[in-house]
Amino acid sequence: MAKLRGEAIGKRLKISRAQSNMLGAVAGAAIVLGASLVLGVYFLKYIRFNAAVISAKDDAIEGYSNAIRDYGVCKKPRGKIYSSSELKNCVPDDVRVGEVSGTLRYNVMVTMAQNQDLESVARNGLSVCVDSNTGEKYSYDTLYSRYENSTNEKDKALNLEIFGLCSSLRAIPDALPGAKNELALMASLDKIFKLSGWEPDSMSPGGDAESEIEGLGAIGVNLSVNTNSTTTIRVLQNIEKSIREINIETASIEWSSGDQLEVNASATAYYTEEAMLQEGLVTVKGTGKITKSGGTN
Question: In total, how many domains does the chain have?
Answer without folding.
Answer: 1
